[in-house]
Amino acid sequence: MAKLIPGWLAHYPKDKLGADVVAGLIVTILVIPQSLAYALLAGLPPQLGLYVSIFPVIAYALFGSSMVQAVGPVAITAIMTYSVLSPIAPPGSSLYIMLAAVLSLLSGLMLLACGALRLGFLSQLLSRPVISGFISGSAVLIIISQLKYLTGVVPHGSSSGELLLDLLIKLPLAHLPTLAIGLFAFGILAFVRLALAGWLVRAGLGKMRADFIVRLMPLVVVITGTLAVIEFDLDRGQGVAVVGSVVAGLPGFTFFVPELDTVHRLLLPAFVMMLIGMVQSITMAQALAIKRRERIDPNAELVGLGAANVVAGFYGGMPVGGGLSRSAINVAAGAQTPLASVLSALAMIGVVAGAAQWFERLPLAVLAASIMMAAISMIDVRAFLLAWSYDRADALALLCTAGGVLLFGLEAGIGMGIVLSMATLLFRTSVPHIAVVGRVPGTEHFRNVARYEVETLPGVLFVRIDERLFFGNLGAVEQRLNQELERVADAHDLVLVMSGVNLLDTTAVEVFGELNQDLAERGIKLHLAEVKGPVQDRLMRSLLWSTLTGEVYLSANAAYEKLAPPEVWCPEI
Amino acid sequence: MAKLIPGWLAHYPKDKLGADVVAGLIVTILVIPQSLAYALLAGLPPQLGLYVSIFPVIAYALFGSSMVQAVGPVAITAIMTYSVLSPIAPPGSSLYIMLAAVLSLLSGLMLLACGALRLGFLSQLLSRPVISGFISGSAVLIIISQLKYLTGVVPHGSSSGELLLDLLIKLPLAHLPTLAIGLFAFGILAFVRLALAGWLVRAGLGKMRADFIVRLMPLVVVITGTLAVIEFDLDRGQGVAVVGSVVAGLPGFTFFVPELDTVHRLLLPAFVMMLIGMVQSITMAQALAIKRRERIDPNAELVGLGAANVVAGFYGGMPVGGGLSRSAINVAAGAQTPLASVLSALAMIGVVAGAAQWFERLPLAVLAASIMMAAISMIDVRAFLLAWSYDRADALALLCTAGGVLLFGLEAGIGMGIVLSMATLLFRTSVPHIAVVGRVPGTEHFRNVARYEVETLPGVLFVRIDERLFFGNLGAVEQRLNQELERVADAHDLVLVMSGVNLLDTTAVEVFGELNQDLAERGIKLHLAEVKGPVQDRLMRSLLWSTLTGEVYLSANAAYEKLAPPEVWCPEI
Predict the structure, then answer these.
(1) Is A127 in contact with B159 (Cβ distance < 8 A)?
(2) How far is B412 from chain A (nearest CA, A)?
(3) d(CA A271, CA A261)
(4) Number of Cβ atoms within 10 Å of the Cβ of B404
(5) Which residues on B lie below 8 Å from A415 (Cβ)?
(6) Positions of chain B with pLDDT lower than 50, given as ranges
(7) Nearest CA in chain B to A122
(8) Distance, CA of B215 to CA of B31 (rounded, Å)
(9) CB distance B344 to B164 below 8 Å
(10) What is the ipTM, given to two decimal places?
(11) Per the CB < 8 Å rule, is A506 touching B390?
(12) Which of A293, A287, A332 has its CA nearest to residue A23?
């Protein structure tokens, strides 16, 4: 890191200070409910959500490149944490908390490595339909995971379907006061989301202000819920579950070196988390930057997000990501530079140090309701319908990813999604353009025999390949070459014109090596012509090059001249 | 299946009958040791390897398309069966045997479905370096898994490294008679593989005959081992582990309907098994067919392999595949058509019905030695060295796949391999060719402004995109378009010349929709020109089409004429 002080700070525009200060303070208060809620979703003590809203946020502000993206606890990383760790340790236990910190640290280190190695392009591994399917599937998982807090009933089962079924059976046993509070909170939040904003705008309020009031409502619901618990003593008297004792005051940094066995176990989940975090953060930062006519550097984003997660590993111990709703709050509150995030983080220190115990009697059902509301808005049916009308293969990839997440879990789901994205891509690139060519009489140009009147040589086949050769299209290339060879009577030479081939991968060079031997057994020599410089440099290190039965010609015409039967000169007079 | 009688049988060339009969009988005897050994490797009772060498083999002969490929128990599917099922049930238990049958049935049904849907191209998901890494990694897993039979010591551990370490610690406790038999068998097999064939050829034997003798040796070792056990009473007297009681006589078909929960659990492993089986069988069948100047139909191969596995599910209950060494034995024995396999299957009925109890005192250490010898020959260091010298990215993909298999297991390893194959592919296709174009004066042709003297319009940018647009290259396209727009003073129109674009996937149409809106906010209209017919048909169903701020022109020239400022006519005289 050459730049110790980030650009936005070194050249801070003083006229933006006011806006950033106001935005920072507003954001601090507005993100409290979601920070608590996502920690709960991750199976961690709620206050950890507040902790990771401090130093990780500052780390991102210093290393990231987006002006307004806000990092913190987000729904997707939270549900991933839960689904990875809950089979290994009881949620909320000290082992579980330690594992979450290791997970955060590992995915942070991987993000840093990817940023340093400029591997940001890896985020393009996933097509949009697959991302959309993954998020929608995760949202359903999130909703199912929160039903236990809303109903006070703990379902058992190994898959989401079983959990849901068990919950339905046990529904008559639901804890009524908890259910009442949860449904009430859910109802208010649903009303706010569906109707209030529209009403406010129609009542004459500006779009900005209406949006702000809507975003304020979760906090209002949380406060109302807590006050109701205190007023009617719902927790001690009625047994409504609440956040419970919160460690007062500011925790220190925890330093630890994870055990090798733990690292081994969490390496793959951390990789998946990194991939998803990468895609989500870069996509969102880019969308925000375009709206604001700014630029982001994908690799700097990775470094920023990586630094935030490494810091989160030692302070708070919960994986963080670039949050859609956090960033939206940040933008709506008027943030101009990352200073707003830094100020919000500093203000959060005050909240944690002074006011954490205020959340002790906050009912979990209210947090669950707000998580479920957020999750519902993540389900994107429209994306499916659009994909369906545009491209069935992409729509199926979306459905399969969502289904995979629900049936086999998050990691397998995203794995299926990647495979499906690629499978459609491969299917579409699996048949490259290939033309049998001949010489245009009187020139040195070679053209498609199907379209032009051209000269050919008896027993010699000239084939031009117009695409890079890689594992996905070799089957079609081999098949086509054999078909064309069968059409030539007594073929004895095959010339591949490689002018359009930018790459032969390792599989291609092996397959052509085999083709070379196979043709040799059939008495056909294989020649190459017009091989591009970089391709040739590499080919010279291959077995194909050293065993090639024919020649390598600079041009198709050179091959033509050489392979033409010796001309019998007939004097015309 | 329109053809109830396969082509090779309907038009059976009578002159090949003799060769097929001889080959069938030889194959029956030669595959006995490996059939027993791979069943042991799969954690199943050895005789199941013989059972699945009967009816599944006939099913493949009837439905497959290869003339000489032989299916049966193979090393890769055996180790996959073991690694999938051993965490769920104790190997050899009746639950385990049932699960193996379900796994075989499921992967068979998936193969049938892929064959029927003509999805053979899916086997191109894997590049050769990744396949090579997967096989080498699996081979190491196989070797480690067999050490317990060779030493008589059962190691504990969750990863292959732990198992190996534990085994080293416990080595002083090894059962010496078992170790002696195992090492002796291993030594003989190693000597045969490394030296004998060469000696025989140098001694004047033909290559064919030498190869045949080498392939006979495992049987000799198995017989010698069994005779040694009987002679010195090593099993009862010394405690050397042997195959043990074999159910005498021919078992019947077992019909069962697997439980939903079992299916759910095995769906993903069965998918991975199908994918690997597909790749292995198609690749091998193709290689054999090319050598013999025959053709195979990849989708018929899938149907054949699927039918074999479905039958195996009900008869023997062990997944089968196209085996390299089985097929080599078949070819070496002189098989001409699948009739050889059918006859070998019928002869196997005789072996199972009459001679199965001969294997009761066969020592497991000898089988383990023959498995380890086969596994060693699967480790392909040369493929790595070749890839390393040719293309580092492919060599790394190979190494990571092998490492992934060893560290995280077979499924995760192959997943990593697929992701890596794709990542290299995406990286190489992530920057498409894009040219800023202008009109060649006096013509309707548009050419690259960097190479030709062309006319341009003020504030209008003509950009030609030369590749299909998909999720993997959109980042680069967007960035390039924005760069080019910045170079144009007061840009107000952007014309995308789509003559080279064969496809816009769902992600592309979304990204261009966003670009369209983004440009609109900047006061720039987006136009399309020369959109290909099929691309346009699809685009008309998209949001981009209905919200496009500019026009769609038939040709770049039409756009040029329309966007040119109205000409002020200056009379020149």
Answers:
(1) no
(2) 8
(3) 16
(4) 25
(5) 415, 419
(6) 1-2
(7) B423
(8) 10
(9) no
(10) 0.73
(11) yes
(12) A332
Would you state the pLDDT for residue A569? Answer: 60
A446, A497 in Cβ contact below 8 A? yes
Q: Which residues contact B441 (CB under 8 A, 6 or more apart)?
A: B453, B454, B455
Enumerate residues 6+ apart whose C-beta is below 8 A from B432.
Answer: B465, B466, B467, B469, B473, B476, B477
What's the CA gap between A477 and A469, in Å, rounded?
9
Residues A219, A22: contact at Cβ < 8 Å?
no
Backbone angles phi, psi at B343, to 5 degrees: -65, -40
CB contact under 8 A, A506 and B426: no
Compute the distance between CA of residue B279 and CA of residue B273 in angstroms, rounded to an integer: 10
- Taking the alpha carbons of A532, A534, A535, A538 in that order, is the dihedral positive or negative? positive
Cα separations in angstroms, A501 against A201, A212, A434, A531, B464: 58, 56, 11, 8, 20
Q: Tokens representing A371?
A: 């998580």
Q: How many CB pairs under 8 A join A and B?
A: 151
pLDDT digits (tens, 9 = 90+) for A107-152: 999 999 998 888 877 777 778 888 889 889 989 988 998 898 988 8
How confident is the model over B338-375, as pLDDT tens digits?
999 999 999 999 888 887 778 888 899 998 998 898 88
Tell me if A418 and B421 make a contact (CB, 8 A cut-off).
no
The residue of B471, B516, B535, B537 whose CB has the most chain A CBs within 10 angstroms, and thus the best one to mutate to test that interface, is B471
Residues of A in contact with B126 (CB under 8 A): 471
Evaluate if pTM is beyond 0.80.
no
Distance from CA of B31 to the nearest CA of A (A): 28
Hey, how many other C-beta atoms are within 10 angstroms of the C-beta on B184? 17
The one-letter amino acid code at A304 reads G
Which of A290, A390, A473 is closest, CB to CB, to B506? A390
Residue type, B242: V
pLDDT of residue A3: 56
Task: Verify whether the Cβ–Cβ distance B387 to A264 is below 8 Å.
Answer: no
Whether A125 and B470 lie within 8 Å, measured CB to CB: no
Chain A nearest-CA distance from B122, in A, is 7
* H, E, C per residue of A66-129: CCCCCEECCHHHHHHHHHHHCCCCCCCCHHHHHHHHHHHHHHHHHHHHHHHCCCHHHHHHCCHH
Q: How far apart are CA A301 and CA A287, in angstroms?
A: 13
All residues of chain B having their beta carbon less than 8 Å from the beta carbon of residue A384 are none
Q: Is B450 exposed, middle or buried (0-12, 13-18, 19+ CB in 10 A)?
A: exposed
Nearest CA in chain A to B511: A128
Please tell me the predicted confidence (pLDDT) of residue A2.
44
Q: Where are the beta strands (DSSP E) in A443-546?
A: 446-448, 460-465, 493-497, 525-529
Give one DSSP letter per residue of A325-347, joined into a string.
HHHHHHHHTT--STHHHHHHHHH
The neighbouring-strand residues paired with A439 are A446, A455
Please name the residue of chain A whose CA is at the shortest distance from the CA of residue B509.
A390
* Helices and strands per DSSP (H, E), number in chain A: 25, 8
A213 min Cα distance to partner chain B (Å): 27
**B469 in helix, strand or coil?**
strand
CA of A120 to nearest chain B CA: how many angstroms apart? 10
